[in-house]
């Protein structure tokens, strides 16, 4: 198990032959259009994590963009709506196909209102994630070891979490509904980028 930090882009040939990768991102804040995308972290579920510290002057990362748009590889997120919107805004890509463990949790774990990554990971796989670096400066030139470890931890367990949630969704008869939500999720993210971030277009009012 190791964490790898790459400057600008993923190395050539990484993640060949896998059918799913866990993905997360770190930004300078949570406002679309104001806060830049700084880091993207990825894991194939093998215990390794690969972090890409992006060049914010160009966002030229062809290997990363190819992975995010590869139709043969599912991208697993937790609250993917934000990451997908950030990728569209800064990298210019439509990320698909996707799976969101937060959506899956809300559809399967209806006995609780605790659907944050820390809570879901603790219950599903018995891992207690540290959030100490969540609000640190991700735009600095050099990331600290603590930042790298934090970013990696957010993707290292998503494959296992997905497997547990899939079993629950199937048990409750909601797996088809979940798949439909995942298919719509990139479009929901594009609506956010286009200005409908705070609007429920399906609401009556």
Describe what this molecule looks like in 3D.
This protein is an alpha/beta fold. It has one domain (3-196): Nucleotidyltransferase, domain 5 (2-Layer Sandwich), CATH 3.30.420. The chain is 41% helix and 16% strand. It is built from 7 helices and 6 strands; from the N terminus they run ββββαβαβααααα. It has helices at residues 62-69, 80-91, 101-108, 117-125, 145-156, 158-171, 175-196; strands spanning 3-7, 20-27, 37-43, 49-53, 74-77, 98-100. A 6-stranded mixed beta sheet has the order 1-4-3-2-5-6, with helices on both faces. α2 (80-91) packs across α7 (175-196) and α4 packs across α6. It starts with a strand and ends in a 9-residue tail after the last helix. The model has no long low-confidence stretch (mean pLDDT 96).
Lay out the secondary structure.
Elements: E1 3-7, E2 20-27, E3 37-43, E4 49-53, H1 62-69, E5 74-77, H2 80-91, E6 98-100, H3 101-108, H4 117-125, H5 145-156, H6 158-171, H7 175-196
Structurally, the number of domains stands at: 1
Give the N-to-C terminal Cα separation.
51 Å
Percent helix:
40-55%
Indicate the CATH architecture: 2-Layer Sandwich
Which spans have pLDDT < 50 for at least 5 consecutive residues? Answer: none
Supply the CATH superfamily name. Answer: Ribonuclease H-like superfamily/Ribonuclease H
Strand line-up of the largest beta sheet: 1-4-3-2-5-6
Count the DSSP helices. 7
What is the helix/strand order? EEEEHEHEHHHHH
Mean pLDDT: 96
Name the structural class. Answer: alpha/beta
Radius of gyration: 16 Å
Counted beta strands: 6
Q: How is the CATH topology named? A: Nucleotidyltransferase, domain 5
Taking the sheet with the most strands, its summary is:
6 strands, mixed
Which oligomerization state do the chains in this entry correspond to? single chain
β-sheet strand percentage = 15-25%
Form type:
globular
What is the CATH C level class, in words?
Alpha Beta
